[in-house]
Amino acid sequence: MTTYGRGLRGLALATILTTTTALALVFFYAPLDADQGFIQKIFYIHVPLAIMSLCGFVIGALFAIGHLRTGDRRYDMRSYVAIHMSLIFGIAGLLAGSIWAKASWGHWWVWGDPTLVSFLIVLLLFATYQPLRFSIEDPERQARYASVFAIVAGAFVPLNFIAVRLSQGFVHPRVLTLSGGNLPGPMRLTFAVSLLAVALLFATLWKYELAAKNARIQVRRLRRELLGDDAVAPLRRSAAPS
Amino acid sequence: MRTARAVLRKDLLLELRTLETLPAMILFSITTFVIFHFALNRETIAGQLAAGVLVATLLFAAMLAINRLFVAEREQGGFDAFLLAPVDRTALLVAKAAALFTFLVVLEVIAVPAFALLLLGPSLGPPLGGLVLLLALADVALAVIGTLVSAIAVQTRARDLIGPIIGLPLLIPALIATARGAGPLLARHGAGFPSGRWLAILALYDVVFALLAYAVFDFLLED
A14 lies in a domain? Predict the structure, then answer.
């Protein structure tokens, strides 16, 4: 019998520690932005959420490749949970971005920012992942089709960013680059710690959902073995792997 | 290749005899132009607005064909027959994408002149060559992504819904490139040829998705 929760406690503790450090740095260490003032601090939440969400989509695609190559259903479960978590992180990131846009540009939504627009398109695409899974009943086919979708959509992520960026005609300067080229040192450090915190949070939640799903499957199997097939309610149609 | 040609021939013959998909796409496009005329309340349109109307109409008309692409295979056991035959499965991808591409070209041969007649202000003559090239590249993207999406959606319970909701976001970058490339072509005294940037994006998009579709298509047919 496999124990799925192994390492979860350590990971959770590390997440709590890093998140607390990150929040402390955000509020007490990072300097106030000269132009935007206090609201700029949402950047330390918004950008890591968005980055982790995109990374999660790509990780989901990598697991999906693993699933199609090996036929091992555990990869499908990992891919599903990664994409599921990424959707949640993505929506949170989008909301945070919207608040930031309202505060600093005066509008809830700004079409001129290519990153925001690309992110919305990616999110719209991945939002169809669950409906797609749900509308295929056969679990084996559901897993296979979901993996095909995850791979295509994962490859779509960078392509989409290129196309949308080009469509803006390079007129909008990038306010904050990933390399931190125009971020002062304390801000860069705070950003790095925040990114680490959100990445750890993603890893913890991913592992936690995986453990919970696997535990449920195991309990079901044990109940069936001990009490007979009649004691276990038949599986309902579900978007999640089972 | 022989298999692909046989399946393509079957599809085109089927369409020629039943006339199910193409007339619907053409009627849909022309009706949409009429709707745009009233919705925008314009006699003629030009420039980026014209490009947007044209490209959006073609995109949604393509969705009709994408929804129907594999329906005959599913309902009449064509998938099983194809899997039983000792042939390369990629042939089905190639044949279906070619059939969809043909549908789109025929649609455009009729819908683009109709658009010029009904809505477009500037003459279509000078930029025609550039527009044909742009639309051909866009058709490849529509055909490849459409075939892939259709093959996924046809096995789901809600295939008419799943097809468009997956297909449209995937096609947004291609739509951006086509619409932005066509904008200057359809402007008064506009450019004669689309900017290389949009052609390059479309070509890149075509190549990447063709390779992707080639890589994953087999998994959609396994049973």
Answer: no
The Cα A113–Cα A6 span in angstroms is 42
Hey, where are the domains in chain B?
2-221
Name the β-bridge partners of A150.
Answer: none
* pLDDT higher than threshold 60 for residue A190: yes
Structure tokens at B211: 């390779």
Per the structure, the complete domain to which residue A111 belongs is given by 41-173+186-228
- ipTM confidence: 0.89
B157 with A162: Cβ contact below 8 A: no
Residue A239 lies in a domain: no
Minimal-distance CA residue of chain A relative to B181: A167
pLDDT digits (tens, 9 = 90+) for B36-63: 999 999 989 988 999 999 999 999 999 9
Q: Residue A52 half-sphere exposure, CB side, CA atoms within 13 Å? A: 30
Contact at CB, A152 and B155, closer than 8 angstroms: no
Name chain B contacts of A141, Cβ cutoff 8 Å: 155, 223
Answer whether B212 sits within 8 Å of A166, measured CB to CB: no
Residue of B55, B79, B198, B212 to mutate, testing the A interface (most A Cβ within 10 Å of its Cβ): B212
Q: Is residue A102 part of a domain?
A: yes
A221 vs A82, more confident: A82
Q: Is the pLDDT of residue A150 over 90?
A: yes
pLDDT at A172: 45
Q: Identify whether the C-beta of residue B153 lies closer than 8 Å to the C-beta of residue B163.
A: yes
> Do the domain assignments include residue A23?
no
CA distance A240 to A164: 32
